[in-house]
Design brief:
Blueprint (H helix, E strand, L loop, with lengths): L1 E11 L2 E9 L3 E5 L9 E7 L9 E8 L4 E6 L3 E3 L6 E9 L4 E4 L4 E3 L4 E10 L4 E8 L14 E10 L2 E10 L17 E9 L7 H11 L6 E7 L3 E8 L2 H15 L2
Parallel strand pairs: 1-5, 4-6, 5-8, 6-9, 7-10, 8-11, 9-12, 11-13
Antiparallel strand pairs: 1-2, 3-4, 12-15, 13-14, 15-17, 16-17
């Protein structure tokens, strides 16, 4: 089933509002802004489906208008069920000048024999801030489904002015890869990616990277690495054992960046 979600923000005074929204089943969008005068638009992307089923094809298109700020949340863990053919998600995000976008979704949980491909393309403009993350679990560990999925392929690309700033290509095939080997998971069961880009002119990120590093040093039972990227960005890679811990960690990293 092809399912679509399109979001466009607008600006009214100092506030960001939802200018237009189009969605098909199973998607639904709710405004969860608690403070009436909060300049940031806070939306929750909800789904009436328990997860992605075989042959599902999600198409997400988000445009953050100039000078607006959008925080998009998800409702719950995204489950990927048993599949014969596979499921696919395509996400396109465009940040216009002076805008900011934060997207910290709940973890992906691939069930046994799940096959999933995800493509995310993010287009930045001048004076933009992007906070984005992805968490991938080993599966339903309590059910004994540790790396029992068939294939999980996630590609994330970040562009500015037509130039590719970052391409993160993650391919996990339990039947072909030894996840306990050196250079793979090395005993960990969950992996996560956290991205931060700031395209404001002359914004140094060395101190920001140090700030994130100092916080990550306090986190137990996780392994983390930080990389500066082209285009004034920071990439954080995490390995751990708990989706909840990683999700909470991403929330705290985002809070540090928004101080």
């Amino acid at each position: 089933m092809i399912s679509e979600l399109k979001i466009l923000t607008g600006k009214r005074g100092a506030q960001t509002f939802l200018q237009s929204c189009y969605c098909t089943r199973p998607f639904k969008v709710a405004n969860i802004r608690e403070e009436r005068h909060d300049p940031v638009l806070r939306l929750m992307m909800m789904s009436s489906s328990p997860g992605m089923l075989d042959r599902d094809h999600y198409r997400l298109d988000i445009t953050v208008a100039a000078g607006t700020s959008l925080h998009l949340q998800t409702q719950a863990y995204q489950r990927l069920f048993h599949m014969e053919t596979g499921a696919r998600q395509e996400m396109r995000v465009e940040l216009l000048p002076g805008s900011s976008f934060t997207f910290l979704p709940h973890p992906l949980v691939p069930h046994e024999k799940a096959t999933y491909t995800g493509y995310t393309n993010i287009y930045l403009s001048d004076n933009c801030r992007l906070i984005w993350s992805e968490i991938i679990t080993c599966g339903r560990r309590l059910n004994g489904e540790v790396f029992r999925f068939t294939k999980l392929h996630s590609v994330t690309q970040v562009y500015k002015d037509g130039q590719l700033l970052l391409r993160d290509n993650l391919l996990m095939q339990p039947g072909s890869n030894d996840f306990q080997a050196m250079g793979w998971m090395e005993g960990y069961t969950h992996q996560a990616t956290f991205l931060f880009f700031d395209t404001q002119v002359a914004t140094p990120l060395a101190e920001t990277a140090d700030l994130l590093y100092r916080y990550l040093e306090t986190q137990l039972h996780m392994l983390a690495g930080i990389t500066r990227t082209h285009g004034n960005g920071i990439l954080v890679r995490l390995l751990g054992y708990s989706g909840e811990q990683m999700y909470a960690c991403h929330q705290q990293l985002a809070a540090l960046l928004q101080v």
